[in-house]
Amino acid sequence: MTSPLRLLLIVWLVALTLCGQAMAAEQKDPRIEAELVPMSQWVVPGSTAILAIRQKISPQWHTYWRNPGDSGGATEAQWDLPAGFKAGDFLWPLPERKPLMGLMSYVYSDQVYLPVPIEVPAGLTTGEKYSVSANVLFLVCSDEMCVPVNMTLSTDLLVGEGAAPLTARHGRAIENVVTGAPRAAEIDAAARVENGQLIINAAGGPLVGLKPRWAYFYAHGQTVLDHAAKQKVELGPQGLTFSVPAGRATREGVTEPVTGTISTDAGAWEITASSGAALAGTTGDGSVSTDAPDKDQATVGFWQAAVFALLGGLILNLMPCVFPVLAMKAAALTRSAHDPVQLRHDGFAFTAGVLVSFGALAGGLLALRALGQSIGWGFQLQSPAVVGALALLMLAVAMNLSGIFSFGGRLQQLGGIGAQRSGLFGAFLTGVLAVVVAAPCTAPFMAVATGAALVLSWPLALAVFLLLGVGLALPYLVLSLSPRLLRGLPKPGPWMERLRNILALPMYATAVWLAWVFVRQTNSIVWLAVAAVLLAVMLWLVGRAQIKPNARIWVGTAAAFAVAFVGAGVMALRTPVTVAAQGSHSALPSNPWSNEVVQAGLSQGKPVVVNFTADWCVTCKINERTALASERTAKAFADTGTIYLVGDWTRSDPAITAELQRHGRSGVPLYLVYSPNAAQPVVLPQILTEGVVIKAVKNAARP
Question: Which of the two residues, 67 and 303, has the higher pLDDT score?
């Protein structure tokens, strides 16, 4: 058994073992499967991690939102955490509306993630594992019955250093829920009851100038309104007005603030409506539908991936690896152009060979995904060692396309032999070999299909791969169906080499970009530069040996191989894992934090906002992208003269550690809003929205 095959077998067995361990944590019931899954591959001491309860709900069954509506019960969890760990509240994604026999329930079906922020204490040791578990109660219902299902879900959290990449199987989906979950915003709201109708006005913030196609109000209280009744929504220049029959708790008037979530096609926000008169600007521009159109985002993504895969397959026909095989087979067809039936059969047989090969590739990748999802399948661009290795790989691909050395020649010769065979089997074999010899050329074009295989469901991912094969086979199939077109087939020539050289340019650009990422992560280019030079020399020697074999050149090549691998190994070993500080952490202009700068700003009568963050803190990055990087937040800071300071804890800083402890925190994120008129700062939630930030800044600026 060759070394690559032996290595593949070892990886397969390890992955299978890990996959079995991961599946053991999944709890199953005939109505629901559930597991506790992390968003990131490891947790960093002193940060906030995100865990999620993943529910896979059987067809015809459902679970419930935080407010189940007219019937049902929300999912509940009791946490069992190691000392120092703390669990927050669920971040509830928006539910589906399920009317049944005059009642309305707010439910989840198919698959749903309920994320929970987990505070991770400082002082943990890298490499340790901590077991966390939750006793979860699901109320799982169909249209005929409800069954309470109790499960104890558990997972292990690995302690690591540096920016933790998302888990391949669930990370992106959980991150999407976290970033899209409705939260508080800078929205003024008032509620009152008139003629049995609960009227809620919402104005300001993101609602100003909003032109939604649809809107709906989800009350958080179960008896606040008649959930099954039709809501009436009116639009105004400053916001929205919702009118719906009052529920048991509000029939006599609004005595307690009404909390709920406004959902629109432009976003969703939580509001608190106190008893009060109508707000100006919330009516007058017509009515708005309450029915959200069904949009299958996965299907949209599938069609985009399908189009790019088809185009990528077509372009592959112009690559030097594939074109000679197709040209030779097309030339062979001209000898039997008098037999259109045989030509059609050959065309379909060739297409079948291509599709079978791409189907096998897709099946292998999907199998690896099933295994790799549990062990972190995918490139970890947050890891400097992986980024450096990818940069070197892109350099090698670019040098190959530039003609500095060649790869795949023997495969092309094999493809030529197969292309000259006659009969249906020969045509089928040519299709298979066309895919095999395409391997050296597929790197720029397989990205879409590979990406689709990692995120789409397996039937859609398989379809994308097959469309890549259709693109590769299509020209040959067209030629077999139209013999007269064979005479117009372009011959191989210098134009193919020029095309190949042009395609090398984006590969060089990718290598440069990855090198830039590496420098940003490590503050050093030395090891990557040395490895790149050694690799380039090695590949140049390989190219020279391919042109004019010479024993001394091969000796030099072998020596260069050894030195390059040693250099790359040293680079990986010496590369620091902790990500270097990046300076500003949002679109807001910032200055480094210190107590002296805070006091200086307050003495000038200006509010001060302090963001204690780190590059390896996933929650910090989400908050900075969604709440601190918006134009509205920047405008609020500018209007109030707020000073924005960043305390970067990417690398250990005793002063920041002490400040975190002074506010009862063992890690980041921590957001403090100082006011010149208050003795103590306001501590903002760990999960931010721009509305929360803007409201806090404006309150701090008030006299």
Answer: 67
